[in-house]
């Protein structure tokens, strides 16, 4: 291929392209990024998907191409079409704010101190208490209960962000069963289902969905935002003493750059954003990790040995979490093989070429599919779950499960602390025995998680 290539170079794309609907039929709407990963294996490190006559999406899974797209001088985060819908849920909260909106910078500066590594000391006890409330719930289910991990881990991360971030308990483990889910979680799940389904369906299917579920979705949006307003309003009326949680931070901090505070509307959107971004992704990560610990019990034994060495039988202290190096490798490897946020959108700041030959227009969406990138040929034996590859000194391939640049995940330290702590406490306490006939099925609703993952729990310590 010559350096001065013509702009007519055709990108690989799925066969059987429809003149109107483009490649929509090539994507299974119930598992879009998993189909995109399969397509990457057929079509290579970059390919294009057409959704309609003039909506093109580039999908990137090659290392060099991803490194180009990560370059903040040429590319930036892009709030792409499916994410426009997410903006209806999270408004101008950090997650979906446009970088050009001043409120993003204000919120980023106000909230960053709440998410740096040392700040995890503030949340540690609330995290432990949330994890123990799950254990108590399991305790109540009998001597050797079979538990629904997919569901319970969702409740855990929800309860944990509520207690740690907002000093609020959702009583996620107060009752059993789906029927007792907190209304916020029911509304959030329903809204996510709607967005994921609508975003991945044809215009005709969309009309039907709109008719059947459109009103419910609108009602849920209102309820979610009202919940955020109420939480913030209650706190504003009754300030707390002591160390600041995320809510205090947002309500009381003045942005050092502009001297402005966050408007109440925006704080409500931040609350919804954290409950959304902080919950599904971490629950999925914990589910995948426990799945592999069950499938490869020798890894669970190494986690146990490490916890024993660092903490003995004592409670796990904040400082000890950083010493659980192997447990952290388990989390890193989980996020490699199954990045629970399976990709993110970028766009060029000006017309450019990718890989020196693929023309890319300013602002057109490029999807970095980490689900494919993290398994490409630059990783040795990529389909094997092997935490040791994250030990210091080992060769590593491309790895960015939390995104890149100023818009990368603000909750990274929070998620890692939470995940390491949960795995350490849970494996010390229980043997997790998988259903003998379980094969991993991955549920996709913008994020990934193991579907119908159950475990039978054998108590190890009293
Ligand atoms: Mn999180 C952004 C992955 C846990 C809050 N998060 C992102 C992005 C990825 C991501 C990828 C970038 C998206 C994009 O470029 O469009 N996040 C994860 C993963 C986990 C996770 C894989 C768990 C594992 N995230 C959390 C937790 C919280 C959180 C926990 C909050 C407590 N994440 C955010 C917020 C953003 C974000 C807020 C948006 C940051 C910004 O744009 O300023």
Overview of this protein structure:
- The strands form 4 sheets. A 5-stranded mixed sheet has the order 1-2-8-5-3, with helices on both faces. A 3-stranded antiparallel sheet has the order 4-12-9. Strands 6-7 form a two-stranded antiparallel sheet.
- Helix 5 runs antiparallel to helix 6.
- The protein has helices spanning 32-43, 63-70, 81-90, 102-111, 120-139, 149-166, 183-199, 203-237, 246-252, 264-277, 280-295, 297-311, 318-321, 325-337, 370-373, 412-429, and strands spanning 46-50, 56-60, 75-77, 146-148, 344-348, 352-354, 358-360, 365-368, 430-434, 442-445, 447-450, 454-459.
- The protein is of the alpha+beta class.
- The chain has a single domain, classed as Orthogonal Bundle (Cytochrome p450).
- Mean pLDDT is 93; it is low at 1-7.
- It binds manganese protoporphyrin IX.
- Manganese protoporphyrin IX binds at residues 77, 94-95, 108, 161, 273-274, 277-278, 281-282, 285, 335, 340-341, 344, 401-403, 407-411, 414-415.
- The site of manganese protoporphyrin IX has 26 residues, from helix 10, helix 11 and helix 16.
Core attributes:
single chain, 462 residues, alpha+beta, Cytochrome p450, five-stranded mixed sheet, three-stranded antiparallel sheet, 12 strands, 48% helix, globular, disordered N terminus, binds manganese protoporphyrin IX
């Amino acid at each position: 291929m010559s350096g001065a290539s013509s702009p007519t170079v055709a990108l690989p794309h799925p066969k059987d392209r429809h003149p109107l609907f483009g490649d929509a039929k090539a994507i299974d709407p119930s598992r879009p990024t998993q189909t995109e990963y399969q397509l990457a294996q057929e079509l290579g490190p970059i390919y294009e998907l057409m959704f309609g006559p003039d909506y093109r999406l580039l999908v990137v899974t090659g290392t060099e191409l991803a490194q180009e797209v990560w370059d903040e001088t040429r590319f930036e985060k892009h709030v792409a079409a499916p994410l426009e819908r997410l903006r209806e849920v999270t408004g101008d909260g950090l997650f979906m704010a446009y970088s050009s909106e001043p409120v993003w910078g204000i919120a980023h500066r106000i909230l960053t101190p709440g998410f740096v590594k040392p700040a995890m000391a503030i949340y540690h006890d609330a995290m432990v208490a949330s994890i123990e409330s799950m254990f108590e719930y399991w305790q109540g289910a009998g001597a050797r209960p079979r538990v629904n991990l997919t569901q319970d881990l969702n409740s855990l991360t929800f309860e944990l962000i509520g207690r740690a971030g907002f000093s609020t308990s959702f009583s996620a483990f107060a009752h059993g069963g789906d029927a007792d889910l907190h209304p916020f979680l029911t509304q959030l799940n329903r809204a996510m289902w709607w967005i994921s389904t609508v975003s991945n369906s044809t215009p005709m299917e969309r009309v039907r969905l709109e008719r059947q579920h459109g009103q419910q979705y609108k009602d849920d949006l209102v309820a979610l935002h009202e919940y955020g307003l109420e939480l913030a309003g209650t706190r504003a009326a009754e300030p707390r003493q002591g160390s600041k949680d995320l809510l205090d931070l947002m309500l009381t901090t003045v942005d050092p750059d502009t001297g402005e505070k966050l408007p109440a509307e925006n704080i409500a959107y931040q609350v919804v954003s954290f409950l959304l971004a902080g919950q599904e992704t971490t629950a999925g990560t914990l589910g995948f990790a426990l799945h592999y610990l069950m499938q490869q019990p020798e890894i669970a034994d190494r986690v146990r040995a490490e916890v024993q060495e660092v903490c003995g039988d004592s409670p796990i202290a904040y400082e000890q979490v950083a010493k659980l190096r192997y447990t952290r490798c388990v989390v890193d490897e989980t996020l490699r093989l199954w990045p629970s946020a399976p990709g993110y959108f970028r766009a060029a700041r000006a017309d450019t070429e990718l890989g020196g030959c693929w023309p890319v227009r300013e602002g057109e969406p490029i999807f970095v599919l980490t689900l494919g990138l993290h398994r490409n040929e630059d990783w040795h034996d990529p389909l094997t779950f092997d935490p040791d590859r994250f030990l210091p000194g080992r060769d590593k391939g491309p790895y960015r499960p939390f995104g890149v640049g100023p818009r990368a995940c603000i909750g990274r330290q929070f998620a890692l602390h939470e995940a390491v702590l949960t795995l350490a406490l849970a494996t010390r306490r229980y043997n997790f025995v998988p259903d003998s006939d379980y094969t991993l099925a991955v549920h996709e609703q913008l994020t990934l998680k193991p579907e119908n993952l159950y475990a039978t729990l054998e108590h190890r310590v009293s």
